[in-house]
Design goal:
This is Alpha/beta hydrolase. Residues 10-257 form the AB hydrolase-1 domain. It comes from Knoellia sinensis KCTC 19936. The chain is of the alpha/beta class and 269 residues long. The chain has a single domain (3-268), classed as Alpha/Beta hydrolase fold, catalytic domain (Rossmann fold). It contains 15 helices and seven strands. Helix 1 crosses helix 15, helix 2 (64-77) packs across helix 3 (90-101) and helix 7 (143-150) crosses helix 11 (178-205). The longest helix has 28 residues, at 178-205. It starts with a strand and ends with a helix.
């Protein structure tokens, strides 16, 4: 696993989304370190320079439960038995799973630009399918790897001006690696199957997040358009949740790192 970490103070684990690496947090992490936090920014299992795991028939090797277990082991290795966690995009599903499966480890949870997978799927109407069709395309066998691999740069886009030079270089190396592309697509296959099952089990058992929770959404993304009041959806999973909009498009850590860092610093202090 590739991981960047530094700083002193209360530990915060920052979990990136698809198709980014831990470097997506570079401007946020630097600000949090200056504000007195110890910050850990890994590449999730199979993403960036972290090693993929052999594909299983049920895609459980890329389940949010498996990835969350990786991150608990990482934080213990770094000497953090208890820590705050913030996740963006696909990383918010990992952060949620971490808080549900390891409640004694997570002091506070921040989820950015996402609602639980099962909640998104049960609301997957024509509007969702039109905007987020890749969820279902990535669930198919073989074809997604062929389509993305034909021209990864055109498929994913991105610029060094938007992402940062180092983050962009890492991201391009990742999307041009076939094994990494497969692992990132497997993330979605797991989401449609085993991850959804795990959330259904949580719901049936009445299991919710015990720790204080923050939900942040980008004002120029589609959280409100799709869900009206996404904070209300999160209340069913995290009864103490509070919310804050971020003036940004979807990739808020790159587009408005100052506001993201300020929101996280207030919450995790």
């Amino acid at each position: 696993m590739r991981v960047r970490h530094g700083g002193h103070g209360p530990p915060i684990l920052l979990v990136h989304g698809h198709p980014r690496t831990g470097a997506t947090w570079h401007a946020v992490a630097a600000r949090l370190v200056k504000r007195g936090f110890a910050v850990v920014c890994p590449d999730m299992r199979g993403y960036g320079a972290s090693t993929p795991v052999a594909v299983r028939p049920d895609h459980s090797q890329q389940s949010k439960r498996a990835v969350a277990a990786d991150l608990v082991a990482l934080m213990q290795h770094l000497g953090h038995d208890r820590f705050g966690v913030a996740g963006h995009d696909r990383g918010c599903y990992v952060a949620l799973r971490l808080a549900l499966d390891h409640p004694t480890r997570v002091t506070r949870l921040a989820v950015l630009d996402g609602i639980p997978i099962s909640e998104a799927l049960v609301r997957a109407d024509a509007r969702f399918a039109r905007k987020w069709w890749h969820w279902f395309f990535f669930g198919a066998a073989e074809k997604p790897e062929l389509a993305v691999g034909a021209d990864p740069d055109r498929w994913y886009g991105g610029t060094p001006e938007h992402m940062g030079v180092e983050a962009f270089a890492e991201y391009r190396a990742a999307i041009h690696d076939p094994a990494t592309r497969e692992a990132m697509i497997e993330d979605y296959r797991a989401g449609l199957g085993i991850d959804r099952e795990h959330e259904a089990q949580d719901h049936a058992a009445g299991r919710t997040v015990r720790c204080p929770t923050l939900f942040c959404w980008s004002t120029r993304d589609d959280m409100v358009d799709l869900y009206g009041d996404p904070l209300a959806i999160w209340r069913a999973w995290a009864p103490t949740v509070t919310g804050q909009p971020i003036d940004s498009g979807h990739h808020m850590a790159e587009e408005n790192p100052e506001e993201v860092a300020a929101a996280l610093a207030r919450f995790f202090q």
